[in-house]
């Protein structure tokens, strides 16, 4: 299993390897675009996802987590709760017709989302190699 969809287009898990190749430990980790942090119960200096190996990766130890979804002064400043994103490395903004493969569509958030943005994903390609698809 490289990437597994365990809920109807809401939760995806990836089997990630931690540690040196000869002693690598594989864990099923939830893929979370709603966080800038990567959470894993242990610590490691080598990170492995299939053929991708990141050495000297820093991990921090956490023993307390606050509620990130407390009300903020900037909440509810827009007329509608909308956003769009493109998973790219460029600092450019706006739309790029070369990157959009279809018309832009609107998707309601999942009910009882606990403050998370949950939208369906029909297809995903990472660096031209890893593909998640309904077909």
Automatic annotation (TrEMBL):
InterPro entries: Peptidase_aspartic_dom_sf (IPR021109). SUPFAM superfamilies: Acid proteases. This is Aspartic peptidase domain-containing protein.
């Amino acid at each position: 299993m490289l990437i597994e969809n365990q809920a109807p287009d809401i939760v995806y898990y990836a089997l990630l390897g931690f540690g040196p190749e000869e002693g690598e430990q594989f864990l099923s980790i939830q893929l979370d675009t709603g966080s800038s942090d990567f959470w894993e119960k242990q610590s490691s200096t080598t990170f492995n996802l299939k053929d991708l190996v990141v050495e000297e990766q820093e991990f921090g130890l956490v023993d307390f987590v606050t509620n990130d979804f407390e009300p903020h002064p900037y909440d509810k400043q827009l007329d509608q709760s909308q956003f769009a994103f493109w998973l790219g490395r460029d600092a450019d903004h706006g739309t790029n017709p070369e990157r959009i493969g279809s018309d832009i569509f609107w998707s309601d958030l999942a009910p009882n989302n606990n403050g998370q943005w949950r939208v369906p994903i029909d297809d995903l390609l990472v660096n031209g190699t890893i593909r998640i698809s309904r077909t």
